[in-house]
């Protein structure tokens, strides 16, 4: 059984446009994930799905699991609950969260419940559209903080990615962001946000684990 740990990984989805890189990432996947990737018709989405899960495989190998064996996956017991949150049924001490943007994927692994989200900052440039989205999922305090900021786009995506990381952490799903807007500074969790190239990457952990974020630098994985 694992004690507490935290590891983060990122990779370029665009790099998987190279056939050799895609095949190496694809070959690392367990059979059930390859089947899912095979069922996707859009090439960009296929690369995103393969990249994110290949990071999880890399992370599991990093902590000493023989992920080349089908029996390892049987023991892990990968499942998704009724709200779609994935977990390892056979390893209640091992948690993970996956995210991807169009051109980058991320994975967080931890010995405590976790959530992560990755967004490319230029995906939303129109200020009116940004304000409209924020009004649906943000509290008034968050709205004021975002639109009074000197760097509105960065502030918006920090808040957005923290909210997505939190609903992945809780397993409540994205619908909960709009149904019951919450303030990320007033939930029982802690957050860490990083800028990676043109992306904002946020991680959520249970309160009391703030020290885990000190000097955290995601490993860049190349397939």
Could you explain the architecture of this structure?
The protein has 223 residues and is α+β, with helices and mostly antiparallel strands. The chain has helices at residues 19-27, 31-38, 43-62, 70-76, 127-137, 140-147, 152-170, 175-179; strands at 6-12, 78-80, 86-88, 95-100, 104-110, 115-120, 189-196, 199-206, 219-220. The strands form three sheets. The chain has a four-stranded mixed β-sheet, with helices on one face. It has a three-stranded antiparallel β-sheet with strand order 6-8-7. A two-stranded antiparallel ribbon has the order 2-3. A hairpin with a 2-residue loop joins β7 and β8 (199-206). The longest helix has 20 residues, at 43-62. The two termini are 29 Å apart. The mean pLDDT is 94.
Main beta-sheet annotation: 4 strands, mixed
Strand order of the largest sheet: 4-5-1-9
Number of helices: 8
Oligomeric assembly: single chain
Provide a compact summary of the structure.
Helices cover 39% and strands 22% of the residues. It has eight helices and nine strands. The chain has helices at residues 19-27, 31-38, 43-62, 70-76, 127-137, 140-147, 152-170, 175-179, and strands spanning 6-12, 78-80, 86-88, 95-100, 104-110, 115-120, 189-196, 199-206, 219-220.
List the helices and strands and how they pair.
Layout: E1 6-12, H1 19-27, H2 31-38, H3 43-62, H4 70-76, E2 78-80, E3 86-88, E4 95-100, E5 104-110, E6 115-120, H5 127-137, H6 140-147, H7 152-170, H8 175-179, E7 189-196, E8 199-206, E9 219-220
Parallel strand pairs: 1-9
Antiparallel strand pairs: 1-5, 2-3, 4-5, 6-8, 7-8
Helix pairs in contact: 2-3, 6-7
């Amino acid at each position: 059984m694992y004690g507490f740990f935290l590891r983060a990984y990122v990779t370029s989805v665009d790099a998987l446009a190279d056939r050799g890189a895609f095949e190496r990432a694809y070959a690392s996947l367990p059979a059930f994930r390859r089947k899912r990737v095979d069922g996707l018709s859009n090439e960009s989405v296929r690369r995103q799905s393969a990249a994110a899960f290949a990071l999880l495989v890399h992370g599991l190998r990093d902590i000493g699991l023989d992920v080349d064996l089908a029996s390892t996956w049987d023991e892990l017991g990968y499942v998704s609950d009724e709200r779609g949150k994935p977990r390892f049924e056979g390893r209640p001490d091992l948690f993970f969260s996956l995210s991807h943007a169009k051109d980058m994927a991320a994975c967080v692994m931890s010995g405590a419940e976790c959530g992560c989200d990755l967004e490319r900052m230029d995906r939303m440039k129109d200020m009116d559209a940004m304000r409209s989205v924020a009004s649906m999922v943000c509290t008034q305090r968050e709205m004021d903080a975002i639109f009074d900021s000197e760097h509105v786009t960065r502030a918006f995506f920090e808040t957005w990615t923290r909210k997505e990381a939190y609903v992945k952490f809780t397993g409540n799903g994205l619908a909960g962001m709009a149904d019951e807007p919450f303030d990320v500074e007033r939930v029982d969790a802690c957050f860490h946000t990083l800028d990676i190239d043109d992306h904002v990457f946020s991680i959520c952990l249970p309160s009391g684990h703030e020290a885990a974020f000190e000097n955290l630098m995601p490993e860049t994985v190349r397939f």
